[in-house]
Amino acid sequence: MTSDRAAADSSTDEVAASDDDGVGRPSVPYRFPGTSPIASVTAGRDDLQAGESSGDVVTVAGRIMLSRPQGRLAFAELRDWTGSVQLFAVAASSERFDELVKLNLGDWIGVTGEVVRTKRGEVSVQVANWTLLAEARVGFGDKWRGVHDVEVRYRQREVDLWANEGVRDTFLLRSRVVSTIRRRLDARGYVEVETPVLQPLAGGAIARPFVTHFNALHADFYLRIAPELYLKRLIVGGFERVYELGRDFRNEGLSPRHNPEFTMLEAYQAYADYSDMAELVEDLVAGTASEVLGTTSLTYQGRAVDLSPPWRRATLSEVIAEVTGVECDMGMSVEELRTRAASLAVAVEAGWGPGRIIYEIYERTTEHELWGPVHVMDYPEEVSPLVRSHRSKPGVVERMTPIVGGREIAEIYSELTDPDIQRARLVAQAAARDAGDDEAMVVDEEFLRALGRGMPPTGGIGVGIDRLVMLFADVASIREVLLFPALRPEHRAAGDEIDAGGPEQSRAREPGEAAAQA
RNA sequence: GCGCCUCUAGCUCAAUUGGCAGAGCAACGGACUCUUAAUCCGCAGGUUCUGGGUUCAAGUCCCAGGGGGCGCACCA
Predict the structure, then answer these.
(1) Under a CB-based contact definition with an 8 Å cutoff, are residues A433 and A207 in contact?
(2) Which positions in strand B are less than 7 Å from the protein's CB atoms?
(3) A22 CB-to-strand B distance under 7 Å
């Protein structure tokens, strides 16, 4: 074994210093250059006939997913992140055949050999030389059924990615969605910026923050719940089109649609209003779907979603009437609206104005019934402290919330730019906070000072990237689009490994034993 | 935080009313020159999540705790 190993290593330009790592394990090279993606190796082989050799010698590397030794022949499935190919080994011509057939499922190897088609018609790499790249000392799941225990899937995502078809595709899709959105924004002249995640005040949204301590400043800081206020300060500073695509943190419950840290796109454009920004959202969503999925006609959880713009726009009152049959209007008296809320079994708190009541009715009765795409608009001022008042309708603001596939996937504003009005709104929020609403906003003097220097008319959007990916990937849980979703920490003693007992024991050898076998 | 459900071999799952804890795959040993979840023979594998309790007898019933899922609430 020692001499064989050395021979294998000499075929690369990296040679391990010794045969094992000091604990009886075989050594592996430091690099394995010159590999071709498996997808490129198998592509364009249609004219290769069964039993024929192509003459092309390739080097591929990946993980052994299936193994079918058959006497003096052996077959295996080798998979890299582009695809799979069958390995075909022959005892008479394949290097270290006996060792090759003893490899375990999950082991990584590099292989050099000719591309052939077997007598039974499978395009294969006929193994000439091969090199062990890594052992799977902890076993993977059932080779056919995969791993379905969601706890294992989320806690040990590396297992999930290999054992379950499609999981890797979902995350590759996510990556393409994010890069496509960036490219589309860049093409529109937006610049990407990075603003603080650690903030002295958690502003820009209505949510409970995570708190941490900044030792050097002797102060508690907050993980951002939104970058909004900083991005608006950049608009004041003359950055006319900015976006930030990053993580926000909200100290709230977990659910199939909520993870405490999630990915948000926020974009702001000077001289634009919420109609302009609605078109941007439609273009980002539908355009990205076209690029990444090749269509704007999706199916989400068995139901059709047509993303092609323009999307319908409807007011809160309109959608409430459609869903419940009850007419509600901002012009109605509080008493009238309370009666209508009561008729819908919606609880109303004392002191709520007409807008707050209508919003509550919408959330309780209507929002979860909408499928979309539809921009829900004319939100009440009371629940939208950072949004500019409607240019013609009293009591409401210029805000749209697009519902797509039954979920809010974005917020779209004509931004409030007047420092005095903004101060009044934030003071009202602070009062609510003092009255016990610990999710209400605080007064951010730095932000208000910035507005005082003049903020041009500006449109802004926030897009929930996780939910967008859920829509595109047609999955019901946010955990399916987060590589490592939030879970309770594992409380397990050292050495109490979940998968102990795979190929582990059989491979634990005395240090001298490997050499003795040579 | 509350409610409901769930936890059995490395993985996927069985186990009748409370009656000897099992199978397939993986792993391990062997056979096999065209396999496709190869097949065949053999071997081994368990704190039934944890701790109590009831019982002649508990994977199963009861209590407490832990992990996970779903729902409610909050939100994107």
Answers:
(1) no
(2) 1, 9-13, 24-29, 31-39, 45, 66-76
(3) no
What's the CA gap between A65 and A144, in Å, rounded? 10
**Does the CB of A331 fall within 7 Å of any strand B atom?**
no
Do A490 and A151 meet the contact criterion of CB atoms below 8 Å apart? no
Residue A332 burial (CB < 10 Å; 0-12/13-18/19+)? Answer: middle
Nucleotide closest to A92 measured between CA and C1': B33
- Nucleotide with smallest C1' distance to residue A150 CA: B68
Structure ipTM: 0.90
- Residue A17 belongs to a domain: yes
CATH label of the domain that carries residue A456: 3.30.930.10
The answer to whether residue A365 sits within a structural domain is: no
Which pTM value belongs to this model?
0.88
A67 touches strand B (CB under 7 A): yes
Model confidence pLDDT, tens digit, residues A414-452:
999 999 999 999 999 888 888 877 778 889 999 999 999
Spanning CA of A147 to C1' of B60, the rounded length in angstroms is 26
Q: Give the CATH number, domain containing residue A32.
A: 2.40.50.140
Over residues A367-402, the pLDDT tens digits come to 988 998 999 999 998 889 999 999 999 889 999 999
User: How many Å apart are A200 CA and B75 C1'?
Assistant: 22
Confirm whether A416 is domain-assigned.
yes
Q: Which domain holds residue A76?
A: 2-143
The β-bridge partners of A222 are A199, A211
